[in-house]
Each structure stands twice: as structure tokens, then as C-alpha cells.
Design goal:
The protein contains seven helices and five strands, in the order H-E-H-E-H-H-H-E-H-E-E-H. By secondary structure, the chain is of the alpha/beta class.
Length: 265
């Protein structure tokens, strides 16, 4: 009887330790509350990245756990005050990469998470620095037959809401369009083809790099295999750069530097 009791205690301690080792991260895309406003009905790039990162976290062998975007929206829909706070916080980050630590701590507490990951994606041109949603640019360039060098910019920031600091961040930038800088779709089939190629880039370059770097940041002894050789989906209506940034984006404004990159094996 005593042996069974000891085994039971050891089992409970093991289970408790395993549960305590799991890190809960709340992943919030900047377009969480205003997705699918384009006539294609596609998710915005920030949501695509967030969904891919959540999948990577939940496949980390119990190291990191993240709620699905559906579950997050469902909880926000039940609390108007929390929904308004979240919307305002995400808008600030989307407009100018501003981080509202106080609001994020409040949001994290309600979701029982000490870490919040923000993702934001937008398109810019060499003509101006106005941030536009991906599919908005596609609609405009298609309707007016515009040809500019378009770039898809993606910012990802991991915040420790308890200590109000940034633990990790990176900025990903890639050209989108064909060799003549055209980024357009005359019909839904062409737009869907662009979507599939963008998904490949956002998943295999951005989400994979970010999630594995974050796992290394929280669990330094973790080993990873990061595939940097992307040799697929590089032609047709859409081309993208196939490189993973080796350093954070340089800036003269220290307030915009969120932290060093962490790289593993």
C-alpha cells in the first residue's frame, strides 16, 4: 500500500512539473478584429502568420501552448470592454509599432497568459510609406493597372507582460509581384493562386523562423531544425525573397529596437 502511495505521489509530482513547464502565449494578429474585409474573403497576412505560429507552438512537445484565434475571438465577443481594449491596442501596434504594455498586461491576465505575441503585416511601395492591407493593395493595383515595387512587411514582437519588456522581435520584409513589379489578379482564381504562394512564404519563412526563435528564447537548451532552403513557389504571378533576416531591422530610433535575435543550431 505504501509503495502504491509513493508511486501515486511521484506520478502527481511529475504531472504537475510537466504542466508547470508549459508556457502559455497569447498570439494576437493586428487584424484580429477586422479580418476578411476584402472582397476576396481572404484572411489578412497578420492572421495567416499568427495561425501558423500558433500551430507551431502547439506542436512544440508541450513547451508552449496557445489558444486558437477562434477561441480568442469567442472570448472577446463575450466581453465588450476587453474587446475594445484589445482593438485599441492592436490598432496602435498596426499603425506605428507602438506597444501598450499596461493594456497587454490586462489582456494577458484575463487570458491567463504572461506572454503576448503581436503580429502585424502590411504592404508599402517605393512611392510612399503608407501602410495598407495586403488584399487592399491587390484590389487597387488590379483595378487601376498600377505597377510599383511592392513589399510585404511583417513585424513580430514577444512581450513579457509581467515585467513589461520585449523578449524577442524581428521584422521580415520581402518583395511581392512578378519581375515587372505587377501585383494583380483579374479574377478570383488568380487571387487564390497568389494566396497559396503567400501562405507558403508566411508559413515556411516567417512563422517557422519566428516560432523556433521564440522557443529557443524561452527554452535555450532546445534543439531545432530550421530549413532555410526554400526551393518552391518562386514563379508565376508572385515572387518573394527566400531569405530569413539575420539581424533585426536597423533604425536610428532606439525606441523601435525591441531586442536581439536568438539563433540556434
Amino acid at each position: 500500500m505504501k509503495i502504491l502511495l509513493k508511486l501515486f505521489i511521484i506520478f502527481m509530482i511529475t504531472i504537475s512539473s510537466a504542466q508547470a513547464a508549459t508556457t502559455n502565449i497569447l498570439v494576437l494578429p493586428a487584424d484580429l478584429l477586422n479580418t476578411r474585409e476584402n472582397y476576396y474573403g481572404f484572411n489578412e497576412a497578420s492572421e495567416i502568420v499568427a495561425s501558423d505560429i500558433i500551430a507551431e507552438f502547439n506542436s512544440s512537445g508541450g513547451k508552449i501552448s496557445s489558444l486558437s484565434l477562434f477561441s480568442i475571438r469567442e472570448k472577446l465577443s463575450q466581453n465588450n470592454e476587453l474587446k475594445n481594449i484589445t482593438s485599441s491596442t492592436l490598432d496602435k501596434f498596426k499603425r506605428n509599432d507602438s506597444i501598450d504594455y499596461k493594456a497587454l498586461k490586462q489582456i494577458g491576465n484575463i487570458f491567463s497568459c504572461d506572454y503576448v505575441l503581436l503580429t502585424s503585416s502590411y504592404v508599402t511601395t517605393n512611392k510612399n510609406s503608407l501602410r495598407r492591407n495586403l488584399w487592399e493593395i491587390l484590389e487597387i493595383s488590379t483595378a487601376f493597372d498600377i505597377s510599383y515595387p511592392y513589399r510585404l512587411e511583417t513585424s513580430i514582437v514577444l512581450i513579457d507582460t509581467i515585467n513589461e519588456i520585449v523578449l524577442w522581435s524581428n521584422h521580415y520584409s520581402t518583395k511581392i509581384g512578378n519581375n515587372d513589379n505587377y501585383f494583380e489578379a483579374k479574377n478570383y482564381a488568380q487571387a487564390n493562386e497568389i494566396l497559396s504562394k503567400l501562405r507558403f512564404y508566411l508559413d515556411n519563412v516567417v512563422a517557422e523562423s519566428a516560432s523556433q526563435n521564440i522557443i529557443l528564447r524561452l527554452y535555450p537548451k532546445s534543439l531545432r531544425t530550421l530549413n532555410k532552403n526554400i526551393d518552391n513557389s518562386d514563379g508565376g504571378a508572385l515572387k518573394f525573397d527566400k531569405t530569413i533576416p539575420q539581424f533585426p531591422q536597423e533604425t536610428d530610433d532606439d525606441s523601435q529596437f525591441f531586442g536581439d535575435m536568438i539563433y540556434g543550431i
